[in-house]
Amino acid sequence: MSAQNATPLEVLQKYWGYDGFREPQEQIIEAVLEGRDTLALMPTGGGKSLCFQIPTLCRPGMTLVISPLIALMNDQVKALQDRGIRAIALTSELDHRQTDLALENAMTGAISFLYLSPERLRTEIVRARLPQMPIELIAVDEAHCISEWGYDFRPAYRLIKEVRSWLPKVPVLALTASATPDVVEDIQEQLEFEEDHIIRKSFARENLAYRVWPTRDKFGAVQALLSEHEGPGIIYVRNRRKTQEIGSFLQRRGLSAQYYHAGVDPAEKAARQSAWTKNEVRVMVATNAFGMGIDKPDVRWVLHWEPADCIESYFQEAGRAGRDGKDAVSYVFYDARDGDQLYERYVEQLVTEKDVHRHYDALMNYLHLPIGSGAEQSFDLDLKEFARHYEFDLYGVYQTIDLLDKDGFWHLSDGYKERSYLHITASNRSLYEARLRHPLADKVIQFLLRSYPGITEEGAHIDENRMAAKLGATPKEIRKELEQGQAQELWSYKARPAADRLWMTIPRQNTKHLPWNRKALSDLRSRKEERIGAMVEYLELASGCRSAHLLAYFGERGTEPCGKCDLCLGRKDLNDDALWTYLKGSQREWNQVMAHYPGKSEEIQSWIRIQVEAGRLHWEGPELVVVNQEKN
Question: What are the backbone dihedrals phi and psi of residue 260, each rounded to the nearest 5 degrees, phi first?
Answer without folding.
Answer: -150, 125
